């Protein structure tokens, strides 16, 4: 099993400057390689591949020994593969008839990570194992950078990445052969309904609150963004204002991740089988503004709902839940959510009139009344168990 471990870096001032220079040089390489591909096709109709650009790296490094030549050859190849992956995704979208979205040049705020594909090739995890109390990662051109290792890693370190978030630096280890730890069986099953008022509601009637992290910091974030808008582009003050806004967004993201991890862990420890809705979050949060000729309706209300859905972090939560369920040996089932919120869990009558309010459910056929999210979670559980039985019978 493969897992990622993320740790905070504690670089010195000199090392932080070297990390920033490393990111900038890799961004320049990415943009130059993109321009090479665009120009070759526009002028001569020639498609440049990854292998062609990788073969030119040794000449680029030789001509710029004090710049591109400082960094790991393998990390630069990983940056070229990153561009190649963007082109392959572009052509896949073209073939599928979707909006293609041609690969774009990366601005200074759009390129914040570098990958070293193999531990020991331009990088080394735990580069000073004899140190009594600290862990270090060695990066070519940067040196031995101290790591705040708050938990032990498991498995074999395969790739090492460094990313920047605001004023912070992180190292991400991708580890192979991570041992799984199946939890003891509980014999319990649960359906879960995701919502905005409560992040998770189980079929047993338990509710997990939605902390609304973004809403809690909205006023301070708006003030910081207004302050940013008043700064002159290219100035030091604007750079600090950008870092302040990024730090706020980073804190919200970390709070959301922390809450998702804790909630998913409680579910995985408590249930052998967990059934959830197979949500299409991108479709659910699509703008309702419409066009000039056909303007949308209730745009402000839909915008607020979209913001609340994204603040709840359903996608992040489901991804984390899937990883924890796999590691713990639990079964996770996704079902079609259509009709689950309007169908009575007692008699099966389905009508939009059953949903009295956001929180209240009252069946117009049998009179069954309960919390709307609990009713939906019960329907989700039944649909998941039906799918499970059908799969076992097949």
Structure description:
This protein has 2 domains: 3-176, no CATH class; 189-393, 2-Layer Sandwich (Nucleotidyltransferase, domain 5). Helix content is 44%, strand content 19%. The chain is built from 11 helices and 14 strands. The protein has helices spanning 13-44, 50-55, 57-63, 73-96, 213-216, 218-229, 236-270, 281-284, 299-312, 314-328, 372-393, and strands at 3-10, 113-116, 123-125, 135-139, 143-148, 156-165, 168-176, 189-194, 198-202, 207-209, 273-277, 331-335, 360-362, 369-371. The strands form 3 sheets. A 7-stranded antiparallel β-sheet has the order 2-6-7-1-5-4-3. Strands 10-9-8-11-12 form a 5-stranded mixed β-sheet. Helix 1 packs across helix 4, helix 6 packs antiparallel against helix 7 (236-270) and helix 7 crosses helix 10. The longest helix is centred in the middle third of the chain and has 35 residues, at 236-270.
Short key terms for the protein model shown above:
394 residues; alpha+beta; Nucleotidyltransferase, domain 5; five-stranded mixed sheet; 11 helices; 14 strands; 44% helix; globular
């Amino acid at each position: 099993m493969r897992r990622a471990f993320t740790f905070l870096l504690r670089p010195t001032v000199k090392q932080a400057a070297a990390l920033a220079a490393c990111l900038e040089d890799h961004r320049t390489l990415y943009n130059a390689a993109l321009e090479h591909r665009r120009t070759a096709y526009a002028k001569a109709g020639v498609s440049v591949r990854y292998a062609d650009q990788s073969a030119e790296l040794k000449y680029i490094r030789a001509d710029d020994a004090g710049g591109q030549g400082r960094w790991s050859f393998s990390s630069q190849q990983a940056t070229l593969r990153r561009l190649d992956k963007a082109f392959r995704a572009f052509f896949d979208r073209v073939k599928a008839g979707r909006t293609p979205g041609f690969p774009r040049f990366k601005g200074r705020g759009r390129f914040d990570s570098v990958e070293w594909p193999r531990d020991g090739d331009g990088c080394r995890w735990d580069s000073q194992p004899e140190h009594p109390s600290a862990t270090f990662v060695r990066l070519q051109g940067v040196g031995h950078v101290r790591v705040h290792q708050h938990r032990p890693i498991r498995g074999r370190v395969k790739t090492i990445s460094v990313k920047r978030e605001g004023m912070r630096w992180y190292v991400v280890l991708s580890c192979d052969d991570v041992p799984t730890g199946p939890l003891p069986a509980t014999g319990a099953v649960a359906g879960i309904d995701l919502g905005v008022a409560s992040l998770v509601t189980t079929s047993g009637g338990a509710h997990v609150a939605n902390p609304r992290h973004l809403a809690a910091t909205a006023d301070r974030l708006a003030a910081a963004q207004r302050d940013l808008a008043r700064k002159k582009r290219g100035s030091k003050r604007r750079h600090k204002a950008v870092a302040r806004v990024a730090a706020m967004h980073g804190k919200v993201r970390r709070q959301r991740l922390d809450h998702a991890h804790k909630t998913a862990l409680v579910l995985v420890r408590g249930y052998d089988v967990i059934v959830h809705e197979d949500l299409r979050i991108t479709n659910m949060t699509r703008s309702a503004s419409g066009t000039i000729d056909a303007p949308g309706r209730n745009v402000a209300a839909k915008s607020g709902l979209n913001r609340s859905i994204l603040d709840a972090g359903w996608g992040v939560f489901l991804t984390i839940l899937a990883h924890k369920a796999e590691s713990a040996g639990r079964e996770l089932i996704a079902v079609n959510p259509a009709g689950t919120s309007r169908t009575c869990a007692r008699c099966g009558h389905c009508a939009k009139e059953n949903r009295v309010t956001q929180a209240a459910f009252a069946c117009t056929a049998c009179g069954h009344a309960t919390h709307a999210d609990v009713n939906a979670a019960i329907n989700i559980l039944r649909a998941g168990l039906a799918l499970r039985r059908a799969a076992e019978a097949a």
